[in-house]
Design brief:
This protein is an alpha/beta fold. The two termini are 44 Å apart.
Length: 423
């Protein structure tokens, strides 16, 4: 049996600033508020972190899974970490203390013994309320590649298309942007994301950090057989409080012209992935640019209609008005027997306000039918605030049918069939 670490030694949890894309997933997931950030880095407070591992599986880049053996009295402070551009190397421990390799083995054994049973993700040790969705992909999902290109070694892509996909007379300026990688390998799957490095520096003279965007195209390219991909980007002109604010990366992307080049890192994401097995059903719920991964998955299904290997597709898509709903035209041209589309418009003139959760309740019988099929996977993407509304609607559908939502919810999470990607 391996001995535990000496009491004066800490295996300190750190975040790699070179890989981190500042998506805030770790801070939102941490059940004890041990993670915080400033305008530069996300960091872990050594005085709070208890090594529960709840933040590790949801991280799309793996930047959260870094550790250093240090004397507790010499632990890296939050202020130390805020100033880093890269992780420090391992420091030798004083004579008489275990070697780093042995201590790592001890800690691995300790972590393993404290982990849930095989087949159950470590993140489930965190309270379920903090993890509304799964931290593992569907069992049949393809293996994703992640972190092939980093801040130090980004890929260069060329803009081959930039199209506005919302009405010109609306304030919602959303663009469909196509990036081509030429001969450079950049393998992706539906549900993954990439990081864009905007040029220039921030107010402190530091290079801008990458901004994360979900893929809007399937694995074989925006155009089938081409080494390209697409993004759905909304131009940001105000903050969440309605105050004027110019989004650094969104405006950069929306203003790009054909043949411009961009620096790309990633790909990221190993859980929000679509199932590959025949007859898998997709229940997709999104708002605004949250439609990007849904478009990618839907297009993947559309391209294989003739093979007869598709399950059912059901989409709940919310926007303020029809003209602010991206991809409205192409969406309406999809065959009705291919995808069941439900549009929730909250600001359409002369119509009552309706949200995605309202339509889910109206279609309760069909939603329940999908929930009862073990081949169904659920994907939710959009603003963070929609999580509770969607969960409440799913619960109401199940409870009104006389079933136990808590049991079903846990099964969906454990089996990798309920996924949230919110921001």
């Amino acid at each position: 049996m391996n001995a535990p670490l000496p009491p004066e030694v800490l295996k300190q949890h750190l975040i790699d600033p070179e890989i981190c894309i500042r998506c805030n997933t770790c801070e939102e997931t941490c059940p004890i508020d041990a993670i915080t950030h400033d305008g530069t880095n996300y960091v872990v407070d050594p005085g709070i972190c208890n090594g529960c591992m709840a933040c590790v599986p949801p991280c799309p880049t793996g930047s959260i899974d870094n550790w250093r053996l240090v004397l507790k009295a010499q632990a890296y402070s939050v202020q130390d970490q805020f100033g880093w551009d890269e992780l420090p190397g391992e420091k030798p421990l004083p004579d008489g203390l275990p070697a780093a390799e042995a201590a790592d083995a001890d800690e691995a054994a300790d972590t393993e013994s404290a982990a849930p049973a095989a087949g159950v993700p470590a993140a489930e040790a965190a309270p379920a309320a903090l993890l509304p969705g799964a931290s593992i992909p569907p069992w049949s999902a393809a293996h994703p590649y992640v972190n092939l290109y980093t801040h130090k070694t980004p890929a260069t892509a060329t803009v081959v298309g930039n199209y506005r996909v919302t009405g010109e007379d609306t304030d919602s300026d959303i663009h469909h942007i196509v990036l081509d990688f030429g001969n450079l390998p950049f393998p992706v799957l539906e549900g993954q994301s990439i990081g864009i490095l905007p040029p220039g520096t921030d107010a402190n003279g530091r290079a801008h950090h990458a901004r994360q965007y979900s893929l809007a195209s399937p694995r074989d390219g925006e155009r089938a057989g081409y080494n390209n991909l697409s993004l759905t980007v909304k131009r940001v002109t105000e903050d969440h409080h309605g105050q004027p604010a110019r989004g650094v990366c969104s405006n950069y992307l929306c203003d790009l012209a054909r043949n411009d080049t961009v620096q790309v890192i990633g790909p990221f994401g190993n859980t929000f992935l679509m199932p590959n097995h025949a007859q898998a059903n997709l229940l997709m719920i999104c708002t605004g640019t949250g439609s990007a991964p849904m478009r990618a998955m839907t297009e993947r299904y559309r391209r294989r209609i003739e093979r007869g290997t598709n399950g059912r597709l059901m989409l709940f898509f919310g926007a303020r008005t029809q003209r602010e709903l991206p991809y409205f035209g192409p969406l309406m041209k999809l065959p009705r027997d291919f995808i069941d589309i439900n549009l929730a418009l909250s600001r359409e003139p002369s119509q009552a306000r309706r949200y995605v959760q309202d339509l889910m309740r109206e279609r309760a019988a069909d939603v329940l039918d999908l929930l009862g099929d073990v081949n169904t996977c659920i994907y939710v993407c959009g603003l963070k605030g929609m999580e509770s509304g969607v969960l409440d609607a799913l619960r109401d559908v199940v409870v009104q049918a006389g079933q136990d939502w808590s049991i079903l919810h846990e099964s969906l999470r454990r089996e990798g069939r309920l996924h949230f990607e919110t921001y």
